[in-house]
Design goal:
Blueprint: E1 2-6, H1 14-22, E2 26-30, H2 33-41, E3 48-52, H3 57-66, E4 73-77, H4 82-91, E5 95-98, H5 103-113, H6 125-137, E6 144-147, H7 154-163, E7 172-176, H8 182-190, H9 207-210, E8 215-219, H10 226-238, E9 240-241, E10 250-251, E11 255-260, H11 264-270, H12 275-281, E12 284-287, H13 295-313, H14 322-330, H15 336-350, H16 376-392, H17 397-411, H18 416-423, H19 427-439
Parallel strand pairs: 1-2, 1-3, 3-4, 4-5, 6-11, 6-12, 7-8, 8-11
Antiparallel strand pairs: 9-10
Helix pairs in contact: 1-5, 13-15, 17-18, 18-19
Keywords: Activator, ATP-binding, DNA-binding, Nucleotide-binding, Phosphoprotein, Transcription, Transcription regulation, Two-component regulatory system
GO molecular function: ATP binding; sequence-specific DNA binding
Pfam family, one: HTH_8
Length: about 450
Amino acid sequence: MRLLIVGTLKGQLTTATKIAMENGATVTHAEDHEQAMRVLRGGKGADLLLVDVALDIRDLVMRLEAEHIHAPIVACGITNDARAAVAAIHAGAKEYIPLPPEPELIAAVLAAVANDSRELVYRDDAMARVIKLAQQIAGSDASVMITGESGTGKEVLARYVHTRSSRAKRPFISINCAAIPEHLLESELFGHEKGAFTGAVARRIGKFEEATGGTLLLDEISEMDVRLQSKLLRAIQERVIDRVGGTKPVAVDIRIIATSNRNLAEAVREGTFREDLLFRLNVVNLKIPPLRERPADILELAQHFVKKYAEANGVPLRPISTEARRVLSTNRWQGNVRELENTMHRAVLMAQGDEIGADAIITPDGDRLDLAKTPPAVAHATMAAEQVTRALVGRTVADVERDLILETLKHCLGNRTHAANILGISIRTLRNKLNEYADGGIPITPAGAPGEYPRMPAMG
């Protein structure tokens, strides 16, 4: 993680700097906005800015936005001035920390920004196989393609590979190719020289140079324009890049990890993705299965998110009820882990009593998750089937078998032949069972077809 302290706060933030460095972060100082922008343009980058509340935070936010630099701001001040804190938040700061800081508070902020809470939680064998492959290739410099539906955890897995590589102490830089307009993505990736285009007020180092020595994650690479794909291919092959408006190539040393929720082989056939680039990126493919194909992970992740959001919201940690577990296990989870996380966050907030019940497992609109997307007739049938299933719990197999046979016979109006066919047993077996029940004093539906009798001698 990269921390940039802006303002004359070095003395007050000695503790914060020490904590950050102990956790593997690099710390840079800038005395004002101009110096901060030079640091950010120069390739050092920052995952978090700690900014003196006495500075014009709104101006800094506007400067960052104008140059498409994305980094959260936490304001800091030596007083507990509520008005200053509110003004800082309104100006665009994510949080306000009074100084001198509490070490635990600084550590919590750093952990949140570094996404330390985004743990790789799994139990299912299908996911375990993916993780095993990730562990095997993590130490190499091979390019990796991570594929899977939206919300399956592709970026989390990319960070997992990085932290287990020889580059773990170097930067992990991520760029979402789908979130940046096409005409700006080239500059974001490769940087630009001053005056290269309107708005290029100074030289800007791109993500390739920022990631030198570390890992560059190209998120949703399938959305990249074909023209830019050719420049990316050259950068990967030759390990050099050209800044926009630049006159000489710049050497880079990075590992590439790319992600996609689309079928890239199909994109190649459609002409929207270069085949040679796919071959370069797809040295190793980590394909994350959707959550519905990892049933053992659903409850494991649900428990993880319950604990996480109970702590975050200061509410009691409640267990998940049996009925709620059933709802979670049978849902299709079209949004995968991301949808499950949001669902459990709501459940933590909505739960009443000692457990998180099924009534707390709801959609954003407030409908029960297991009924919200189901037509009324299907929902009714589902509830009826669940009631039947619950009625079986706690009973012996012999009791359930007896009731099934007698109810089937009743349905067939006593016709033994029809009942045996429905039950999938021989007429001899059926008659022996009925004789056994009759000996126990249980009423038997009389025979309803010619030639059939209420009781027949037992046959061995």
